[in-house]
């Protein structure tokens, strides 16, 4: 073993400079050319940064579209899911409560219209998206609270619906809510 | 929903189409033939010169293993020190603390052995310095270690009678510079242009649109995320792993990362065909692996897109499937595919929380890690499969009453003993660990520890048992994914899984290398009409049967207590 010890230490130092030092440094330089310059792409409203395009935010006020429940309360200092198993009684009770709360705030909606994503926590706790169905069931509430026409709200939803060649159709919740605020 | 299924099919087909040229390239690199990457040669020469290495020196199997184990030991010692003192080192903009001794022990082992079981969250548990100089570094070098072991095995099978398995340093460095570095650079660049952070800025504090004050973790993550996929490492920059929108910004990056998980493991199976000039044998092996893989994918896609029946009962709609622990932009189908890709290959990254998978999907993910040889970890996947081959050769030999042979060498008692021991090691580690932890949980729930055994689990009943079983299965397979509800950052889990990790990594490397070293030393017997044809469908069926029997006998009772029992409780 002794024969291999010194070469082992030396090659470790050399490769750690390559992979720990030069490799990420080179990528940080490449990132200067990318949107957001490697810091993450920001979203602004009235000239002020209000968040990151990819990082979901908590919306609890009725005038905004709500996102998904989050195990980290949308504080992106950390991240994570609920890690609740599908048969956990406590968890199922929690989902039931979310359904009840949702129905109180959206009285015109019937239960079967609520898509599961709005009452189940995301994997990251920072999911920036909801589906078009998730937005549609909230449109009436948002229109009423903001005192604007339902058509106007639906128009905004359609405008912010992103169709992809492959994969689920998504809506960026933060951008949709910024657009709502910009209406005035 | 339909485009989601098509998305999976396209992802898999593209993976195989890319793996074929990559396999030819890998074979060329290690045969020493000319390739486009020869511009790296002068740089490699400098590396060897500075390190005092003669890359042309032949090594027998013992020397090869000594070099491999020595350099791994060096990483363990240095890495432990860096993690333990990380708060005092530079590049720590978020002022994160030192790791505790037991956590540093678990973390360093877990990354040296290519597992990446993470008992911390990246946002708070590491600094940028340790993320780069310990974690990213080990993600390259541990994958290259696995590849070096595999090429040694190829070398032993290639030559008729030989002592030499090649030079460890030469193979190891080339695996890094010729294969991992170029592919990781490509994948990292794709991620960067889709929004993954790559700068050295620390946490950002912002006020959200609604007016809440929150922080956003960032960092030079793109490179680490690329190599974590390609090197079957799997440890996330962020706590939520690849479910985090910075690690996996959209469906396209999800496809690129899914491809990266399987790319090198599949390419190494084909590379065997090109390297040994036994393409048919490689196809047979690929066929068996793929049969298992696609079966598992179909099961998980079915159950995840069908949704959770306990939620359906509440009267809401599950238009896309089970959404707990999943992301809208990825969807249940692609997450189900990922859950199999990551457990087949000992990758262990997740784009959905496995703890919240429906019972059968979670069980299949465990089964996949129990086999741990379907494509498998970079290099080591085939080493595990090789054990099944040796056992299949032996049993076939017994059935026809001939001395078993493999690639022109007699397989005798010593080799079979080693293979059998390695095959029995996994059930021993997984089941003994699970039994012991379950015993503590049941008998000493209030033991006076920092974290009481009674509060380890995040879910009651069968699912709680699954959390324990999954953790040991993942550790033994060097996978690194988890049922993350388990409270695992405490002395019991850090230390017990630490030992399972070491044994589950190095014995399955040492065993096959020893077997091939012993085989290669024997007299070469040319093929005759009496030789067992290993590249036939019949032999393929034999290997398949061995895998099914060994795994079913070992694990069925444990799986019945966890996922299967949970299934019957909600369906």
From TrEMBL, chain A:
Localization of this protein: Cell membrane
PANTHER family: POTASSIUM-TRANSPORTING ATPASE C CHAIN, POTASSIUM-TRANSPORTING ATPASE KDPC SUBUNIT
Gene Ontology molecular function: any one: ATP binding
Name of the coding gene: kdpC
Family, as annotated: Belongs to the KdpC family.
Record's function text: Part of the high-affinity ATP-driven potassium transport (or Kdp) system, which catalyzes the hydrolysis of ATP coupled with the electrogenic transport of potassium into the cytoplasm. This subunit acts as a catalytic chaperone that increases the ATP-binding affinity of the ATP-hydrolyzing subunit KdpB by the formation of a transient KdpB/KdpC/ATP ternary complex.
Signal peptide: none
Domain of life: Bacteria
Subunit comment: The system is composed of three essential subunits: KdpA, KdpB and KdpC.
Keywords per UniProt: ATP-binding, Cell membrane, Ion transport, Membrane, Nucleotide-binding, Potassium, Potassium transport, Transmembrane, Transmembrane helix, Transport
Name of the protein: Potassium-transporting ATPase KdpC subunit
InterPro entries noted in UniProt: KdpC
GO terms for cellular component: plasma membrane
Topology relative to the membrane: Single-pass membrane protein
Organism whose genome encodes this protein: Solitalea koreensis
Automatic annotation (TrEMBL), chain B:
GO cellular component, one term: plasma membrane
Coiled coil start-end: none
Domain of life of the native organism: Bacteria
Principal localisation: membrane
UniProt keyword annotation of Protein biosynthesis present: no
Transmembrane region(s): 6-27, 67-89, 128-154, 175-193, 258-276, 283-303, 373-398, 418-442, 491-520, 541-565
Pfam family name, one: KdpA
Subunit and interaction comment: The system is composed of three essential subunits: KdpA, KdpB and KdpC.
Annotated function: Part of the high-affinity ATP-driven potassium transport (or Kdp) system, which catalyzes the hydrolysis of ATP coupled with the electrogenic transport of potassium into the cytoplasm. This subunit binds the extracellular potassium ions and delivers the ions to the membrane domain of KdpB through an intramembrane tunnel.
Protein name in the entry: Potassium-transporting ATPase potassium-binding subunit
Source species of the chain: Solitalea koreensis
